[in-house]
Structures are given as C-alpha cells and as structure tokens.
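Protocol step 4 of 6.
Sequence for Penicillin-binding protein (Liquorilactobacillus capillatus DSM 19910) entered exactly as in the expression construct, tag removed. Do not edit the line below.
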Amino acid sequence: MNFLFFIVFLLFAALIAQLAYLQIINGTRFQSEVSSTDTKTETKNVQRGMIYDTTGKVLVANNASRAITYTKPLSVSALQMYNIANDLVKYTNIEINTLTASNKADYYLAVPQHLKDVQKRIPNYKKLSDSELYRTSVEYVKKHKLVKEMTQKEKEAALVYSKMNGAYSLSTVYIKYSGVTDTEMSRVGENLAAMPGIKVGTSWSRNYPNGEAVKSVIGTVTSEKQGLPSDQINSLLAQGYSRDDSVGSSYIESQYENILKGTKSVTTLETQNNKITREVKTYGGKKGDNVVLTINSEFQKKVQDIMKSSVESVGGGNPYLPGAYAVVMNPNTGGIYALAGVSRDLGTGKVSENALGAINQSFVMGSVVKGATVMGGLMSGAITPNNNVMVDEPIKLQGTAAKSSWFNSSGGNNMSLTASNALMVSSNSYMMQLAMKEGGFKYSSGAALSMPTSIFSKLRGFFNQFGLGVKTGIDIPGEATGYEGPANQANIGKSLDLSFGNYDSYTTIQLAQYIATVANGGYRLQPHVLQSVHGTNKDGTLGQAKAEFSPNVLNVVGASQDQWDVVKTGLWRVVHGSSTYRTGGTMSGVKPQIAAKTGTAQTFHGETPTETLSAVSYAPAKNPQVVVALVFPGMADSTTSHVNTQAVASIYSAFWKYVKSSDGLE
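Step 5 output, structure tokens:
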C-alpha cells in the first residue's frame, strides 16, 4: 500500500515539474510562438468569360496554356530568390527580350557581398534611407558597368529574379505563361521541392474562333507579359489584381471587365513564424460570366465589307476621303446590330478597319439634321402643322454673300414649300428662315441680321433632344461629343449654317440615335451592344441568362402626333416624293420601303473645298425596325457620287438577309 502511494507521489511530482518547465522556463517562448501564428490568403486567376454574338456564335473564347508560376513566400531573402531563379533556368528556357539594365543590376545586387561592396562606395551611404540607398546602388552598378558579360542562362535568371522580386508576399506571378514543353513541365515538376514557391499551372489567353474582324469593337485584354495598364495600375491593385494579371484594356472587354473577369480562387494559409504550416482551399474560384452582344457577327462583317469596298471604289477620285462609318441600330431597343468603319491613309490610300470611328470621329454632317430643325420650329411655335409654308429664295443679308438651296442658287427657281416638302427637296433657305423666326428676326432681303446669341442654344437644345451634339451613352468607352462652333455675335450668321447642318460636327452614332428617335416617335434610347449576361453550363456551353439589358430612355421629345407627321412625311417624300428635286430617289427601290434624309456639307481640307456625304434612314417606313446612319467625309467638292445612298441600299439588303426576314413587310 505504501509502495502504491509512493508511485502516485512520483507521478504527481513529474507532472508538476513538467508544468513548471512549460509555464516558467519556456512560457515566454511558447507565448511568442502562439502570438506569431497568423492566417493569410492566397488567390489565383480563373478563366475569363466568353463573348457571343446575338445568334449565339462565339466571338471571343479562351486558350489554356501550361504555365510556370511563382508564389512569393511571407519571408524570403534576395539570395534565396536568386538561387531559385538560377535553379529554375536549368530546367526551362525563358525569353529575355524584355530584360533591362535595371534587371541585371538587381540580379547582381541579390548577392549580399556585391550589395555590401557597392554600398560602401556610395558617399554618406549611412545617412540614406534603405530605399534611397538601394536605388542609388542600382544606379551605381549601371553607371560603373559592374555587371560584366552574362551568359544566356544568367540573363534568363536575371529576368526570372526580377519577376519574383517584384511580387508581393503570397501573390502569384507568371514566370513563363506559354510555350512550356512536355520536357520542361516534367523537369520543373520533379524539382519543385528544391524551389520553394515555384509551381506549374495554367494561363489563359484570348482567341477569336470566327476571325478577328470584330476585335476592333470588342477590344483587347492585356497579357501576363504586358501586365496591368500603367494608367490604371494603382486602382487595379487596390481591387485585388496582381501586376501581371490579364485585364480588359479597351472597348467591350474593358467596359464589362467586372462581368468577364470572374472571381479568383482563394486558399487560406496558416502561418507560424512566417512559415506556412497549412494550406486549405476555401473557395475554388468562379469562371467569369459570359456576355452576349446585340451585334450579329455575320451582318457586322458584311457592313464592314460594304464600307470598305465603298471607300476603295471612290478613293481614287477623292484624295481627301479619310474613311467612312456606319451604324445600324434597333430604334425600339437601342441595340446595335452593326458598328462599322474604315480609315483611309491620305498618303498611301491604304484602307484599314476602324469600326470605333463611328463613335469617336465627328464630322460636319450637312442636311441630315433638318428633321430636327423642322421639329424645333414646330415645338417652338415658329410654324405649326397647319401653317408652315415659306418661299424658298436665296437669303441675302447685309454684308454677307447670299446663301441658298442647292437647286436655287440664282433665285430663278423660287418656290413655296411646306415643311414636309422642304425636307423632301432639302431646302437650306427654308431652314434659315425657320431659324430667323425662332430668333425673333423678321427677314427681308438686304437687311442686317439681328438676333440674340441665344439662338445657338435654342437650336442646339432641340438637336440635343434627338442626341445630336451630346454623348449618346453607348456602352463602349471612348465616345466623342462632337464639336460646337463659337456662339457669339461675331458669328451670329453661323446660326443660319447651324440650322441646315453646316456648322457643328457630330458622330455617326449620334446620327443613329437621332434618326432612331424620329423612327420610334420621340424616345431617345441609349445605344448598347450588351444584350445579356449568362453563366456557363457544366459542359462549358452558354448557360442561362442572369441579366438582360432593358431599353433605357434618356429623354422624350414632347411633340404631338401632328408634329411628328410633318417630319415623318417629309422623310418619306425624300425617297418616294413626286418632286424631281427629292434627294433620296436613288433609294426608292429599297424593299421594304424606307424613309430617309440625305446630307451634303461644304467642308475643307486645309484650303481645298471638300464635301461630306451622309444619310440617315429607317425601315420599314410605316413600322420601323431598323435604322441606318452613315457618313463619307472629305469627298471632292461638287461631287456627283451617290456612294452614301448606294451604301444605305446595300446595308438594308444585307440586314433583311442576315438579321431579320422581310416577309410580310411593306
């Protein structure tokens, strides 16, 4: 019994001794270790969402490539990264075309003895901050050419080191994002244990299964090699991007970056004393959602071909033609069916694709704006649906040359015109008289023009309601507003030019919004290329719709039905009227029948007179489902070309073939 008590006593004594050891002798150390335990997160990229056209055809997909990556540990020295870089290039080849002198200097200074020797040579080095001292050391190495001839592998290692050194703790950078061979993958994989942070993975790049014609509208994505755009790098880093992440850098890819990018996978890392003790993938990541566009890719290509061939066909006789642009849009939703355009090099005559010129290039468009001028006159009360007759005659004002309509320059063809017929024959005189009425000036031949400068804002205010002279709101970055000429007393006569479209400049997308507003009876709709956002099915195909773009009414033109009838009747007569002076007769054979307005603006290339040919239209005239707006600037002065109306006819023919059926439509 005494022996049993003695054994129990010994056990309690051992327990007390162990507790003393843990709590008294090593308590501080264990407490420090507990305090140094932390949880971090590591993120990795996922596949970007795809882009489809309105028919479900894939426009932009993804290529998967084997990649070699580096995830920077919480605590790693420059020498350790230097050694890893030297080891890695034994097993793989790295392109060095981006290697810089600074990269070489960083690699040289990663060796502690080199860094120590260089810093000792810098005057007052002890007074410099760490960052200033290192920056000065790099410049010293470059200035004194301390980096001697490097072997190919040393150069490769220097570039690898620069990528590793530039990473944040626990961030992942691509060392090699494409072209990794089977042999390289195998050799690197076999030696991962000796290269902490190095991993094999996947990188993604964009490809275009149905050709790159639509790329000028869709835009581009930066590659891992390019990294984040320099002008956005700080804001993107703050959003969780890594420096070499791919990101939409222009147009649709940029506009819908948040939809397309997906969400990165998340791995939770438990660390102790700056060493990873446990890794748990807490979120597997989610591929970016897919975007379906309103654009019909086959029709888009056809319209692009029409504009290109049109420019090529007239380029020889029009040396100052800089290109041409077209927009085809749904007037009832604002959806863009096609956005096309080309630029033409005035020196070589070479024609190249420039679809986005339709939203970022502005021109003086000419008489196409007269529908808005007439509506402004009706809404202001200068004319009424039942009282709108004026005589077309040359406008002669004191101190200025006479201004007239194209068919009545001498005054030998004066005629009484209703507002609708003024649109039909494109009367400049009628529009100028209308502007003078709105400005409170009673015209008489030879009188001095006297109007307040508010006439500019009055005319422009009505134009703006249709989308002329203001941004349309299209969901593609880079839209231009156009240009407004000076609105002062010195230029008061220019208000008359403004009334018939020969002063301010507009974009082609503004023309499309304007004619769409006429076609649908007064609703100015935001143009858009986004149709819907979709997930992805398990088999990788397009999933169900998550969101759809709803028509967005920006403003309503508050005109009466009688007022709309005046304008729409005029646009109908432009094409189908009985006058020999109607300006759109070459489009009378287009089926279903269209309503339209053509335009000719007098412009200059330097001191050389040129003309802009434009056109706006909608079809069918009685039940509009599509509008077409286009422009051919810089044509030769007094041109007899009908390239604008011929292109309109060709585009409608393609629309009813590739986009919708015209069966049953008049």
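Step 6, annotate. The radius of gyration is 35 Å.
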